[in-house]
Amino acid sequence: MTTPAFDPAHDLALQRVIRAPREDVWRAWTTPALLERWWVPAPTQSRVDVLDVRPGGGFVTCMSEDGRSFVPHTDSVFLLVEEGRRLVFTNAVTSAWRPASPEPVAMTAEIVLGEHPEGTDYRAVVRHGDPASRDRHEELGFLDGWGSVTAALAALVEQGAAS
């Protein structure tokens, strides 16, 4: 499968070096107990209900402000899984394979893990159906939200929690 070109009118992206092995970053993405530790910005807590890491598999999480009452966060499906290297999922289709109209925006996220001399070259590209959705996602704080959870992911794996 080819990778669509980055389109700045439709897409948002972030990239950083994570100073941990790529395998640890992959494990933090694909192990529910590890994913729960970084998937939402602290102090909000995450719960992973479904993490079926295969093409067509579900990806369902909930989040909680108080650690007791959880509300839906992500209900999506994996489109592509390249073991240890690449995950693509969308919230435009639910884990039950039903079309969705997710709030605040429908998106397809591509996570690519590459080699870097200091660890892992981590890239996330989030694609939107139109420029208005892309702009809305940016206005809602894409870089702050995705940036903070990526920083939490980096902290987790750089401390060796996924080794």
TrEMBL record:
InterPro entries: ASHA1/2-like_C (IPR013538), START-like_dom_sf (IPR023393). It comes from the Bacteria. Residues 19-158 form the Activator of Hsp90 ATPase homologue 1/2-like C-terminal domain. Pfam families: AHSA1. Belongs to the AHA1 family. This is Polyketide cyclase. It comes from Modestobacter versicolor.
